[in-house]
Each structure stands twice: as structure tokens, then as C-alpha cells.
């Protein structure tokens, strides 16, 4: 067998061109390194199919333009709790302290943000407002730190991930990075000392190698598309839908481990439930015991985790007629009531809830609403109103149908993985003793980032790019 | 530097002499292999300080002597749910099908079991009965499979782990195994092909090696005593007490990974809350919202998980005077009421519960009790009785005080880890592709065993010995 052809000789080889890899490639090139960036498909990755929100703050120019006063400590206080328990405090501190500068970096790529605030509760606002709340104004966070909105939305219609990746990829090419699409990395090359000095890859049917004189950055994304790894590490996602481009197969995580890297927090995941927040906040979320379990005005990922991880299903939204009609049809994402009933007893029977359970729950809620204080979960009083017959129930386990096709497939639950390679704040991949594997770096969802057991929109694009940049600079030798 | 002295030349080297290692060593020796078994301390490990219950069934001689009819399918049905979601079905099937024979293996070691059933709810029965319930007779399991008790207790006073390990260690020595205590394994020796052919160790201040012509079995236990590994993989245990001999530092898991092994389910843990089941079952368990969350007659580890993983704390037991006095003082494990009150409103104020929440919960419970049906969680009607003032509250986060010292330290939560090396049903350590690392085997809590996210007493000693035996035979070449 002949030795594979050397395809390129670079200072830094970046594996995977989602947001983390693109950020790493760009910063390494700007630091003067000769950079080659590989992607098994086209650049973009799962980042390009994401909503595009960026969790940023500490007093960004967008926040200022919206008249919002923020500082890094307020941001840290919120994220420490919202991403917890047990976030990575070292990474989180840097992320908050560096957030204003990181926002300017995005603006420097030509990404713009409309200077207005969306003040509703949504997965994806129906407006073009550039700033949105991501749970900061909901209990228990309101008691921890002054609420400040930090969801930064690139100016575009709907999902903004494609725009983000378009601008990032353009900047990467303009910085002189050699981008090789359709190139699948199959192994890392280590020298006799164990230093990572390149990668092996499959490109247009040929085995090739890329030399990396300074470092290799793994930015291949998570493992939600790898059923075996999900079963081994993140069983909460078994059987559910995956939020990805279909290529989050954990291959880079495995390459890192094979080179001596270790894993961290592999069971942590984002989880999203097919609930329309605008409906839920006007009524209540109910579990299979007929009990409320959360204030419905939290970031929707938080009520999703509260349900999927911690409460027996099935999970439902209960609203009354006024609540249903308050939400414009196009903001209902195609959901339809599973049950419409004049009495709660009927609902209990239809859904198989314990007799009287929903009646108890609604009676308490209505007493609280009349008094203006949600005594269990402290939902903002602006969303409190006694519920009246007739009632509509929307089953959260039946998915959305925004196109109105009548097909609402799946389990109603989708997610992606947050665990991966254990890295330093500079993206060095760490071995079992906490020592860097020489020449090997990683960022994005191939790593364990700022997250503990919680998640907030924009923190994955956020920490992927933030620590991707740091990894790129470190790999370039800066 | 001179090469380390070769201390011994064996067919099979077993690392760690808790229940899994002892079972592996014994079976390898019985299969004709020359076996050396190493332990960094004395034989026994965390197994020796455990309660000693064995989860066995399918129709064991003990079950028959107690007049209990069981079969492997009933056992599988219960454990599949109780250890789930997502237990290891291949391992679990073998475990249930082999359980009658496995019980005879224990009897063959000279361990006896008194042929009587303890019919209460307890972490550790106050009697010498040889058989106990471990949640099989509680909802929702009663609806899945005919309830059969399967907790097998070696005949001894109190904790039986020492007896189990005493008999096992004696059998190991009698089988001709060379047992080396105070020998700490520091690395695995692999030949040029990657096959594991021995271990490096530190023994009485000297570096030595042990050759293993057929295989090495890692049986070093879990990682609950390694704070860094707990933070990386099992954050639910951060800050809590550890159930171990103090030496569950994950060292063997790391050795296996360094040799090419992979990890599985590292976030799975057992969790125990300092609740006296006999009190809880006569009243109710309440969370920080003033809500019940479980039928109090389940296996106590199950209500512990239901609380610690899924409900906001602090967690409390509420009983009335009659319930308190029904439990003999020595069975109260030294707990004292945190609050004694004539009204539930007083309790709410003292504990900071939402106003009216406990009143709602008790009103519902008392209605259900009067009707003879727990409509939320289906606790066995024999434990249902309307609760009456005065009430006593026992705080679960303050620990036990069985010696009556007045000191109830810690968080009230303790646990150990269930994740580890990914292995075949024969204990082969598997690499990222699912291929065995040649010459390397593992068993017990250094591996991921039959468990999904749940736990039942006796399944760790149970799967440790069961799959330890299989690993020992496989390593011996049988």
C-alpha cells in the first residue's frame, strides 16, 4: 500500500466548517497562520440550519441602541443559573467578560441587528426585532439579577443561521483560508511523541493527508445523529428527533478520544418540546398527573427540560377560548386542539388524568390569578388571568405543523447534544490527567462548553464561535 | 532506568478484589487458569461495606422456601422498568435467565439465607429475614408484572457486605488464586499489536509488572470518590456523600480508556435520600412546592431519585402523631422532627412552602385515603389513612443519626456511580467501533452494567458478581 498523497501543508488544519470551525479558521488566518479548513459536506453545518440567535450581552451596542443597560456580572449571574446546575465557570466567566467584543466581531463580518426589542415569549419571534428575551425576565431569575434581554438576532426573516454562516464563510475565504468541501477526515496523524501533526482524509474517492505544522482544530459538531453514541451517553434523546444538518455523528469526538482526549458531560443535551409558548403563557402547561410544573413564561427550552427530563408525560397546553384567540393563527405553528371541552372533568377523562387533578390545578391557578400572584411558580402577573370554559388542550407530543399539511409526526421532542471533548479555555484537548494533547484543539459541540445541565438559545452558536476563535488563535501559536 | 521486576507470571491478572474481581478470579481459577488478583488495599472494596443484598430471582431456592413463585420473565419485566429507562437489554436478559444458577453459586460459597420474608418497607430490615421486597409490590410495577420479592439477604445482622466478601475471598484463596494486597496498578502493558499482556504496579514501594498470558480483568469499582471525574461526568453527585470504601477513584476506568476502551452512561448514578421509609409510607413525601411526587411505598432508591433528580427541594416527610408512633424508635434511624405543628399553614410558613400548597396536597390525600385509592400515585391502600393534626415534619436533607450523637451532617444525599467502561456480555472492553480490546476485560462498577437510569438495591453486587464470573471465564479462555 502506498502512502496517501499529501494534499496540503498548512500551519493549522480545521476539521468541520460550522460556526466553531469557521471562527477558528478565520482567527487563525488573521493571526498569520496558513490555514486549511475541511468539511465533509459544504460549509455551514448544523449552524446554517439553526435559528441564528446569539446569546450576547454585558452592554453590547445593540443593547445600548435598545436602551437596555447590562454588564458582564448580570449576564454571568443569569447564565450561571440558566445553564446550570454546574456550568463551566471558567469558560462562562470569559464568555461574559468578552461578550461585547464578540458582538463587534460579528458586526465586523457584516452582520446587522435591528435595534428593537421583541417583548413576547417565543421560540422564534414573528417580527424582525434584533433583540429578544431568552428567559431573563422570568422567575426565578428575576430574583437573582436585574432582567436584561440578551437574545441577539441577525437581521433576516425567520431562521438566521444561514446568514450567519454565509457571512462567516465569506470572511474565512477572504482571510485566505483554503476551504476544502467534500473532504471527510478519517484519522489524526500523530508523531512519535504523540503530537498531532496532521489529518488523514477521504476526498473525491482518494485517501489524502493534510499536514498541520502548528495544530489541528476539531469542530465537527455533536453526536445527536449517531444512534449508538446517543444510546451510550445521552439516552434522554433516544427515539426523539434531532436538531442538526443530519451529520452530527460524533466522528470528531471519537478522533479526539483516539488521540488521547477525554470526554465531559456527555449526557447533557438541549431538549425542545413542541409547545407554542404564546399559547402556554396565556394558559398553563400540565403534566400527566394533571399538575402544573413550571412558570410558562420561562425560556421555552427551560419548560421543555422541566417536562421531558423531570415530569411524567404526556404534556399538554391548556388554554381557554380567549387565550387561543389572543394568538394570531400564523403564530400557532399549525397546532390544533386535541380536545375542546366545556368542563375540566371531561378533559381529565379524555386525557386519562387522575380524576379531579386538573380541577384542583385550575382552581388554584384561578385563585392565584384573581389575586395577581402565581404562588407556585411566580409567572409574571401580566400573563395571569382566571381561565374559563370552554377549554382547549394542545398535546405537546404531537409536534408542530407550520405548513398546515395535517402531518404532525414524531414524538414532539427534539434535541441535540452538549457534551464532548474536555478542553481548556483555549480549546486545548485535555487528556485524563488534564494535560493538553500536543497539537490538538477543539471547539463547538464537539466539546463540552459553557453549559451545565441547562441550555438557552444562542449559547451554542455563542460559545462555538467564542471558543472557536480562541482555539484558532491558540492553534496558530498566538 | 532498569525494567521493573516481573513479580508474577499468570494466565489472568485481576485488578481489584471487590465482588466483581473476586467473582472473576474465582471463576478463572476454577476454569484452570493461573490467576493473580491484586488490590491496592485489602480484599473487600466497597462491596464489603455495602448492605449485602443481592437482587436475584426467577425461582431461586430461597424464593421457593418462602412460598414465592417467580420466573425469569417476571424478573425481567420488573427490572426493565425499575432500572430504566433504557437498561442494557442484552445483559439484563442474561442476568435474569441465569439468576437461579447464580443464587446456587452463592450458596456454594457457604452463604446462607433465612427462609422468611420481611414484609415492610425499609432500606435495611430490622429483622434477619432472608427475603425482602425491593419495590416490586408498588405502583406502577404492580400493573406490569405479578409482584414477587427478590431481595436476597445473606444471613447476618445488619449490613451483609462483609460476610459476602469474607466468603468470596476465602473461596478465591481456596481455588488457588494468588492474592496480592497493597498492590496498586498504575498501567496496562500492551504488546505491539495492542493486546493487553500485563499490568504495571506499585507494590511495597517498588515498581513491578505482572504478566497476563490470557487476559487482564479490571474490577476497580466506580468513580464516586474522584471529584474531578464526578464533575466531568456525574454532576448530580457534586457536593453529596459517597457510598464507598473511599477508594472508588475511577483509576481502572481511566486505565481501560488509555488502552482503547470507551465509556458508557457515565452520568448514571444511584442516589439515596436520608428518608426513613417506614415513616414516609405512613405519611407522605413532599417537595419544595408542597406537592407529593411519588407513591411512598416504592423502593426507597426510587423515591430518592424522584426527589433529587426531578423535584425542587428541600424534601420532607410529613407524618401525623399516629404514624410517628407506629414506627419503633430504633427503626427511626435517629431522625427527629424539624417541625411539629397543629396546622398545615404553620408547616407551610416554617418550611417556606407556597401558601396553601400543603393544605391542598393533604386535602387531596385525605379524600383519597378515605376512599381507599391514591388517585395520583396508587400507593398500596394498606398504607392509606387520612392524616390528622398534630403533624411532624422530618427534613430529608439533614441525614440520619442512628447512633443518636445529635450530629446529622452532610446534605442528606449520598450515592455512587453506575457508568464506566463499555463491555460485551462477556466482559470484553469495547473500543469506539465496538471491537474488543484484545486481552482486556472488566466487570462491576468500573463498567456500565445492566442499569439504565434507575437503580435497585442488590443489582450492583448482583451484576458485579454475575458479569464478573463471565469476565473471569472469558479471560481464562473458556
TrEMBL record, chains A, B:
Its cofactor is FAD. The keyword Metal-binding does not apply. Keywords: FAD, Flavoprotein, Oxidoreductase. It is an enzyme of class 1 (oxidoreductase). InterPro entries: FAD-dep_OxRdtase_2_FAD-bd (IPR003953), FAD-oxidoreductase_2 (IPR050315), FAD/NAD-bd_sf (IPR036188), Succ_DH/fumarate_Rdtase_cat_sf (IPR027477). GO terms for biological process: steroid metabolic process. Its EC number is 1.3.99.5. Residues 11-460 form the FAD-dependent oxidoreductase 2 FAD-binding domain. One of its GO terms (molecular function) is 3-oxo-5-alpha-steroid 4-dehydrogenase activity. The keyword Oxidoreductase applies. Pfam families: FAD_binding_2. NCBIfam families: PRK07121.1-3 (NF005510). This is 3-oxo-5alpha-steroid 4-dehydrogenase.
Amino acid at each position: 500500500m502506498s502512502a496517501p498523497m499529501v494534499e496540503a501543508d498548512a500551519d493549522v488544519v480545521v476539521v468541520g466548517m460550522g460556526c466553531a470551525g469557521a471562527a477558528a479558521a478565520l482567527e487563525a488566518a488573521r493571526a498569520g497562520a496558513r490555514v486549511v479548513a475541511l468539511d465533509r459536506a459544504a460549509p455551514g453545518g448544523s449552524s446554517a440550519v439553526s435559528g441564528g440567535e446569539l446569546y450576547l450581552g454585558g452592554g453590547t451596542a445593540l443593547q445600548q441602541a435598545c436602551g437596555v443597560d447590562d454588564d458582564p456580572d448580570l449576564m454571568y449571574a443569569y447564565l450561571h443559573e440558566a445553564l446550570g446546575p454546574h456550568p463551566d465557570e471558567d469558560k462562562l466567566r470569559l464568555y461574559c467578560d468578552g461578550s461585547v467584543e464578540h458582538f463587534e466581531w460579528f458586526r465586523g463580518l457584516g452582520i446587522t441587528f435591528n435595534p428593537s426589542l421583541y417583548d413576547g415569549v417565543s421560540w422564534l419571534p414573528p417580527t424582525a426585532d434584533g433583540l429578544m428575551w431568552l428567559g431573563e425576565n422570568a422567575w426565578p431569575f428575576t430574583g437573582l439579577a436585574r432582567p436584561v434581554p440578551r437574545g441577539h438576532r441577525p437581521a433576516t426573516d425567520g431562521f438566521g443561521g444561514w446568514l450567519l454562516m454565509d457571512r462567516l464563510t465569506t470572511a474565512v475565504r477572504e482571510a485566505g483560508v483554503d476551504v476544502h468541501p467534500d473532504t471527510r477526515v478519517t484519522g489524526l496523524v500523530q508523531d512519535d511523541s504523540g503530537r498531532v501533526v496532521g489529518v488523514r482524509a477521504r476526498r473525491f474517492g482518494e485517501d489524502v493527508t493534510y499536514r498541520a505544522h502548528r495544530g489541528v482544530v476539531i469542530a465537527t459538531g455533536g453526536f445527536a445523529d449517531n444512534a449508538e453514541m446517543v444510546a451510550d451517553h445521552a439516552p434522554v434523546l433516544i427515539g426523539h428527533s434531532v436538531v442538526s444538518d443530519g451529520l452530527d455523528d460524533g466522528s470528531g469526538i471519537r478522533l479526539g478520544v483516539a488521540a488521547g482526549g477525554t470526554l465531559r458531560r456527555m449526557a447533557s443535551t438541549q431538549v425542545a418540546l413542541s409547545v407554542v409558548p404564546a399559547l402556554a403563557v396565556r394558559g398553563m402547561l400540565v403534566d400527566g398527573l394533571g399538575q402544573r410544573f413550571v412558570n410558562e413564561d420561562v425560556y421555552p427550552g427551560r419548560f421543555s427540560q422541566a417536562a421531558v427530563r423531570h415530569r411524567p408525560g404526556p404534556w399538554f397546553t391548556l388554554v381557554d377560548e380567549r387565550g387561543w384567540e389572543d394568538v394570531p393563527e400564523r403564530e400557532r405553528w399549525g397546532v390544533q386542539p386535541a380536545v375542546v371541552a366545556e368542563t375540566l372533568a371531561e378533559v381529565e377523562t379524555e386525557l386519562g388524568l387522575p380524576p379531579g387533578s386538573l380541577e384542583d390545578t385550575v382552581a388554584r391557578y384561578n385563585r392565584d390569578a384573581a389575586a395577581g400572584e402565581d404562588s407556585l411558580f411566580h409567572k409574571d402577573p401580566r400573563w395571569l388571568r382566571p381561565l374559563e370554559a370552554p377549554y382547549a388542550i394542545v398535546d405537546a407530543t404531537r409536534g408542530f405543523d407550520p405548513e398546515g399539511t395535517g402531518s404532525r409526526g414524531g414524538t414532539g421532542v427534539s434535541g441535540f447534544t452538549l457534551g464532548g471533548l474536555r478542553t481548556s479555555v483555549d480549546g486545548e484537548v485535555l487528556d485524563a490527567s488534564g494535560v493538553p494533547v500536543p497539537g490538538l484543539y477543539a471547539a463547538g459541540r464537539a466539546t463540552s462548553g459553557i453549559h451545565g445541565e441547562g441550555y438557552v438559545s444562542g449559547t451554542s452558536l455563542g460559545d462555538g464561535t467564542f471558543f472557536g476563535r480562541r482555539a484558532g488563535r491558540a492553534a496558530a501559536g498566538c
